Amino acid sequence: MSCETDTVNTAEREQTSALNTPGVKGMNKNTGFRHGISAMLLPAIFCAAPNLSWATQHDEDDDDEVPFDEAQLFFELNNTDGDLGIHALIDGEPWRKLKIENQRDRSMLTVWVQGQLRKQGLTEIFFESAEPTFDELSPKNFFRRFKAGTYEIEGKSLDGYDLESEVELTHTMPAPPEPTVNGNPKAEQCDDEEPGFDATVVSPPVTIAWEAVTMSHPDAAGGGAGVQPPIPVTIHNYEVVVEAFGDDFESKLFVIIPPGQTSMTIPEDFLDLAEEFKYEVLAREESYNQTAVESCFVLDD
Question: How far apart are CA 172 and CA 162, in angstroms?
Fold first, then answer.
């Protein structure tokens, strides 16, 4: 597996997206790493017929609705900070209008492309909602706001065709991973400016490991508020994010881990960048709902 600092190797991603893709408060808020989707190669027939436009492929029935290439609507839980948000990743043919309707066919998002951009069109959009903490918006009220069910993502292509995909939004959140660093339990206080800072001290090589996540979130007052009692889940993949802190820089490493693997050894050249590190382990369920846990470690002098 090839990993580079400050870049996401999209050839290794499936989704963040970030979901693979992809996609941290302090780490996962605005990085977009959950939601990278690896590009898919077009069938050879399109290369053999370069004059065949996308529009003419659908001349037989102009009323057909064409699905988006990628349509995901999912929840993200930061189990460490205690907050929930809703995310979306949509990709497909160039479009000039996009709309998301909830399970009651009521619009919850409409995007119009205007001006010179309307002639160009958009092909991909990713968003993540605000993520207020549980004391501002309880998980129970959050899930009540975004009810489970079938949501429709609709669009109008530049060629005038209707685009539409249906997605199932569920309240099933994976249980939080329980990572260790070289066998040491995760640190609970990672803010070195606050009392109780207890970053784990380790020597290279550094391996982050966790037990396989097989059940949904157990906390009925937290991330499991939408589904009780806990039920078995199927993990789509894990994601590990490691952040190095230097004197005047920050560098991030993103790695997508297949569901059958539950550990990752950090490359030595990345460890050479700093002495203090934060990390996150994220479990992504087959619905793309994802639960993240954050912690930190310090290299031994």
Answer: 31
Nearest Cα to Cα of residue 171 among 215, 108, 217: 217
Tens-digit pLDDT profile for residues 64-95: 789 999 999 999 999 999 999 999 999 999 99
Distance CA 138, CA 226 (A): 11
Residues comprising the chain, all counted: 301
223 phi/psi in degrees, rounded to 5 = -65, -15
Cα separations in angstroms, 137 against 134, 204, 218, 282: 5, 41, 19, 22
Q: Is the pLDDT of residue 1 over 50?
A: no
Q: How far is residue 114's CA from residue 91's CA, in Å, rounded to a whole number? A: 19
Q: Is the dihedral of CA 248, 129, 212, 70 positive or negative?
A: negative
User: Residues with Cβ < 8 Å from 223, sequence gap 6 or more?
Assistant: 77, 79, 84, 139, 173, 176, 217, 291
Q: Give the C-alpha separation, 55 to 159, whole Å.
A: 6
The closest of 1, 24, 23, 26 to 12, measured between CA atoms, is: 1
pTM above 0.85, yes or no: no
Phi first, then psi: give them for residue 40, nearest 5 degrees: -110, 140
CA 96 to each of CA 39, 69, 112, 121, 158: distance values in angstroms, whole numbers, following the listed order: 22, 16, 6, 5, 6
